[in-house]
Structures are given as C-alpha cells and as structure tokens.
Design a protein that fits this description.
The complex is a heterodimer. Chain A is mainly α. In chain A, helix 2 runs antiparallel to helix 5. In chain A, 70% of the residues lie in helices and 2% in strands. Chain B is mainly alpha-helical. Chain B has one domain. In chain B, 66% of the residues lie in helices and 3% in strands. Chain B contains five helices and two strands, in the order ααβααβα. In chain B, strands 1-2 form a two-stranded antiparallel ribbon. In chain B, helix 1 packs parallel to helix 3, helix 2 packs across helix 3 and helix 2 runs antiparallel to helix 5. The chains are: A mainly alpha, B mainly alpha.
C-alpha cells in the first residue's frame, strides 16, 4: 500500500472515528457545521482545480472528478466541526484568536505536508511561501464566514453552543 | 456551440434562483439546513453514478474539474428539496402524502427524460429513467428523515 492510499483510507477513518467523541447533545451543532463547511471547501476546490492552480493526481472517483473528495468532503469539514465544538465562547479574545490559528494551522500544514511529500495534491502556481500565505488567508476567510453562519443558525434554532 | 444546452441550463438556473424568493424569510435557517444536507447526498450519489459510468454530463459547468453536473448537484436539486420539505403536507392523509412524493419525483424524472432525449446535458449509458425516479424519491425521503431528526419532530421514519 502506498502512502497516498494509506492517507486516503485514514482520512475518512479518522473523520468517522471522531464522530464517536462528539457529545450527544452537540450532534445537531456538529452536523450543521460539517455540512456548511463542506459546501464551501468542496465548491472552492472544484473552482481551484478548474482554473488550474491545484491538481490531485491520486484521488478517489478518478473518473467523476479531478478534485480531492476525501480531503475536501470529509476531512477538512470534520476539522471545522471540531473547531466549532471546542470553541471557547467564554474566554478572552486572545484565546479565541489562538483557537482560530491552531485549527487553521492544522489544515494548512496538513495540505502543505501532503503537497510536498505525496502525490495527493500538487500546487501548480506559486512558491512555497506564497502557497502557505494563500492557504492561511483563504481558510481564515472560510472559517470566518462559516462561523458567522453557525452563530446565526444556532441562535435561531437554539442549539446550545456552550 | 451547444446553444440549446446553454439556454436550457441558463433558464433552469434563472427559474431556480427566482424560486428562492418564494421561500419564507422566517424559514431561512430551515431552508439552509435542507440545502446543505441535500448536497451531502447528491454529491456522493452523483459522483458514484458518474464514476461507475452509468451516465455522463457532456455539457456542464466547470467541466475540467468535475464530470458531474455542478449546477444540478450544487444548486438545483438542493433548492427543489427545500421546496419539497417546506411545503410538505404533513397534516394531510396518507394518500395525498404519497401523491406528493409521486408528483415531485415524476415531474423531475420527466424533465430529465426529455433533457436526456433532446440535449447533451445528460446522457444515460446503463442508467434508466426509473433509476432517476427511485433515487430522487430516496433522496427526498432521506433528507426528510434527517430534517425531522434535526428539528426533533415525531415519527421521523414515516412519510
């Protein structure tokens, strides 16, 4: 088994396994965060592949899509779900900003790692520095948008965020 | 090139987009939840169907990156599903609820059948029209179940 296949199997396995650690009263919050973030990452990936700045040489659904299904449809939304579930609502601003930085870094470093050491993802444009800056900025924007949406949604539907 | 296809796709986009205005403002959060959860199903099922070569979308948006129909799976069916669930006649008798399912799935299957026959937006290989009918009804049913569970309604598995 190549490292790429191992990662492609590990990503959904990790995502599914982490579901069991979600507290029962937070299932609804977790589901809506997962679905909302999936919409953004999946659409964004397809657009980036279309304009030719990212390639996914090893992927699932080889015929049906050129975008990385496992990363952008399961793994990264799951990271965002945990970002929402573990968000420190009552803490100071610095802690909240740190929370953002930690979770975005997990995603960015993961993407960075697989693009450097494996064939799962390849960047076609930019230098290593510009790629990481790009990734940080775009994920920061996605996180902010989704977080605003989730706060609005949970206020409307009385989902507890405590 | 592909003028008919582009006109059909464009008009479907316009119709779907206008139909968003008819969703009540009060139900915006429910609608967004239905929209997102339908996407989860349509994408996975659509990718499976194309990957196995059951059907093809020769004319499509974002054609380099994606071999499934982006507009259908990302936008059109999720919006239709919003209307399906928000107007669902849950207080009506059993027969009219079955008729409601039947009407929605049949109407969409018919439209897809004619689009398949006369344009290159979709091409069936081993896919049959009744597979569309079955998969649509299943998608509507599963999304309804998820929706009922999410909003803590009773008897989530009954139609």
């Amino acid at each position: 088994m190549t490292i790429e296949r191992f990662i492609l199997l590990a990503l959904p396995a990790f995502s599914i396994a982490s579901v069991f650690y979600i507290p029962k009263e937070k299932y609804r919050l977790a589901l809506i965060s997962f679905l909302a973030f999936q919409t953004i990452t999946w659409a964004a990936t397809i657009i980036f592949v279309e304009i030719g700045s990212i390639e996914y040489p090893v992927r699932v659904f080889m015929r049906a899509t050129k975008s990385g299904f496992m990363h952008n449809f399961t793994f990264i939304p799951m990271i965002f779900t945990w970002f929402i579930l573990l968000f420190p609502f009552k803490s100071s601003l610095i802690k909240k900003v740190l929370h953002y930085i930690v979770f975005i870094s997990v995603i960015v470093w993961f993407i960075y790692f697989i693009s450097f050491y494996t064939d799962l993802e390849k960047f076609k444009k930019g230098t290593p520095l510009s790629i990481s800056i790009h990734l940080y900025i775009s994920y920061f924007v996605y996180f902010i948008i989704c977080h605003i949406y989730i706060s609005w949604f949970s206020k409307k539907e009385n989902l507890s965020q405590e | 090139m592909f003028l008919t296809e582009k006109i059909v796709l464009g008009s479907v986009w316009v119709i779907t987009f206008t139909s968003i205005w008819f969703i009540p403002r009060k139900k915006a959060s429910q609608a967004s939840f239905i929209f997102f959860s339908t996407q989860l199903l349509t994408w996975s099922l659509g990718l499976f169907a194309v990957d196995f070569g059951w059907l093809d979308y020769p004319v499509r948006e974002l054609s380099k990156a994606n071999a499934t129909s982006f507009s259908y799976e990302y936008f059109i069916l999720p919006v239709i599903s919003i209307h399906f669930i928000l107007h669902y006649p849950s207080n009506k008798p059993y027969k009219s609820r079955i008729l409601y399912y039947f009407t929605f799935s049949t109407a969409l299957t018919l439209i897809e059948f004619f689009i398949e026959k006369y344009t290159l937006i979709i091409q069936y290989h081993s896919w049959r029209w009744y597979w569309t009918w079955i998969s649509l009804s299943l998608v509507f049913y599963i999304v309804t179940v998820i929706y009922k569970w999410f909003y803590k309604m009773k008897r989530i598995f009954s139609i």
